[in-house]
């Protein structure tokens, strides 16, 4: 048996999901189908709903996922290896994510308050919006070392960004490396300078392939990525499947020791001249959450936009304190 298998056998892959709404239930379903966890407890103020969701997920064919899924309470968190928070309301058509702060700051504070009694130090992923603000709230209230609490941040935006580029280039998404950084919201920043196709800078690739590549094309893609969440909400009132697969990816890193790099949100400590704000930058992820923020060779304009995005979040956060 190799070390990886030994490790997987020895850890209890138990996950708590707080908030069993569309997002929480979709995450539980995705984790189950992919066999990423072994045990999932759903916690929600609407206990009946959490029981119903747990039953529905649990009743699938066993070999399509053999998780134990059940409704529980905060005392079930004491031996969890990962806690995922998706309690709180989602955006309505026409709202920004920041419009959710007033109601969701109180909800996430309440969740952390309840969790504290039983919490034993595992990573906590914040999914609720406004993601960067709520990640900072949870980080401050839980008082853990930097990176143990982190938000999904721009992971979904990065995934949408890379999908749009793949579609434009008519190429498989697997060969693309690219990130969106900054606020998970209106002040997000696609990092054009680091975007590559199988390691080749995208402008060189496009030149080689005779594909048009200029600022207008980049602008069109940026706008499309920015509006994707709102477009889905205007069509079906919710977004939940996309974020569920993103959280699955993060859960796999934490539970199954798959060190990775993703653009997620956690409080910066002077990187890019920013501190005291939770914001997305490419981060090294491991079993304990965010282990390091990568300081990449961004252009002057990208750094300036990141700093502006952080300043706007700081001013917004301070207006609630
Ligand atoms: P939903 O309304 O379907 O579910 C929210 C759930 O939270 C409800 O079941 C509710 O009973 C529960 N809840 C409320 N207060 C609670 C509390 N104090 N303790 C425990 N549970 C509580 O909403 P949803 O569509 O599942 O969205 C959940 C959150 O996820 C929203 O804030 C939404 O904006 C966010 N979201 C984030 C992303 C992302 O990219 N990070 C993507 C989609 C949605």
Q: Would you mind describing this structure in some detail?
A:
The chain has 321 residues and is an alpha/beta fold. It has helices spanning 3-10, 22-33, 47-58, 101-116, 131-142, 155-169, 202-209, 215-236, 241-255, 300-318, and strands at residues 14-18, 39-43, 68-71, 82-85, 124-126, 149-151, 176-177, 180-182, 188-190, 196-197, 200-201, 260-269, 275-286, 289-293. α2 packs parallel to α3 (47-58) and α6 packs across α8. Helix content is 43%, strand content 20%. The strands form 4 sheets. Strands 3-2-1-4-5-6 form a 6-stranded parallel beta sheet. The protein has a 3-stranded antiparallel beta sheet with strand order 7-10-11. The protein has a 3-stranded antiparallel beta sheet with strand order 12-13-14. Residues 3-10 have low confidence and may be disordered. It binds nicotinamide-adenine-dinucleotide (NAD). Nicotinamide-adenine-dinucleotide binds at residues 18-24, 44-46, 49, 86-91, 100, 104, 107, 110-111, 127-129, 131, 152, 156, 238-240, 243.
Element layout with pairings:
Blueprint: H1 3-10, E1 14-18, H2 22-33, E2 39-43, H3 47-58, E3 68-71, E4 82-85, H4 101-116, E5 124-126, H5 131-142, E6 149-151, H6 155-169, E7 176-177, E8 180-182, E9 188-190, E10 196-197, E11 200-201, H7 202-209, H8 215-236, H9 241-255, E12 260-269, E13 275-286, E14 289-293, H10 300-318
Parallel strand pairs: 1-2, 1-4, 2-3, 4-5, 5-6
Antiparallel strand pairs: 7-10, 8-9, 10-11, 12-13, 13-14
The chain binds nicotinamide-adenine-dinucleotide (NAD).
